[in-house]
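Thread: sanity check for a docking pose with zinc ion

Original post by kr_44:
Hi all, I'm comparing my docking run against an independent structure prediction. Below are the sequence and the ligand SMILES. Could someone generate the full complex and paste the structure tokens? I mainly care about where the ligand ends up relative to the chain.
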Amino acid sequence: MQIESDYYRSRELFVQEAEKSGLRTFRVRVPFESIPDLFIDFALAKRDPERALVQLSGTHGIEGFAGSHVQREVLRALPEGGPSLLFVHAVNPYGMALYRRANGDNVDLNRSFNLAPVRNHDYDHFNSYLNPTSRIGFFLAQPRALLAWLRLGGQRTRQAVASGQMHQPHGIFFTGTEIPREVKLVQEVLRTHLGGVKQVTVLDIHTGLGKFGDELLFVDPDRETESPDYFAKCFGRHTNLEDPANGTYSIHGRISDAFRRALPAAQMRYCLQEFGTCSAWSVLQALRLENFEWKFRPRGTLPTPRVQQAMLEAFLPQNPAWREKVTRLGVERWHQAWAMLQA
Ligand SMILES: [Zn+2]
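Reply from moderator J.T.:
Ran it for you. Here is the predicted complex with zinc ion included:
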């Protein structure tokens, strides 16, 4: 099966595969602009009332093509019994349909669960570079950003750019100022269908950060002390921490906090499975270009082929070896998480 790069086709195939495997499917509509047919799709199998395995795709819109494909492959050969299963397809359907990372309000759903104001004043040093207001601004803002980078250093620059910001609503990595409806809808489904579980593992598939083809398994020991050990045992390899000193960054308003809040009685273990694509610089160029164009084109319309191509290259590379590895490891981690919950 090949990886689709069309939202509507992806969701159709997801629902087909889930129904073939006997799962109950349902959907919630998240319309934006003039696009009515945007849905978060769910596939549910109620098995063990105390344990559940949840897998998410498309928290970051366009990153959902890889995740959707992994979900279909998992659904094609489900093991019998074990924990209850929930698959969430396209947490951000607008982003997936329109080849962008943020939703229709420009909110980054993995920066949006903010219960306190986010202060990221360093972002302003890079604002004109990240979010140019004219074509010429793409070039003119570069020296200023370069100087700020030299002055602040790599670690602080990464935090400034990508940790999330609340004061530039049209800028990239915008947290929003209230909890977005997609996040609230997923919380509602968790409460309704998995309210009684005592143990839940959540796998959230992303692409775009890290070296080409590398797999990063981000866990959060601040929220779940034993999760690095749990997942290291589960996956048979080390996990990764959001660490600004180590080439990544630590973010505001994680979506995992929303899940934890929705299931307060459960012991939650959340792992963000990230697959590296091209360089961080290339990913940032694609995001700048896409956001610039999105702001100026008619609402609800697709990006130009050039922007669509740049975004797909940044988040779903064509390379067959990359695609094979992402599929294989996506499926393998799900089975490992399933076996660990079974034990
Ligand atoms: Zn992501």
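The longest strand covers residues 48-56. Hope that helps with the comparison, let us know if your pose agrees.
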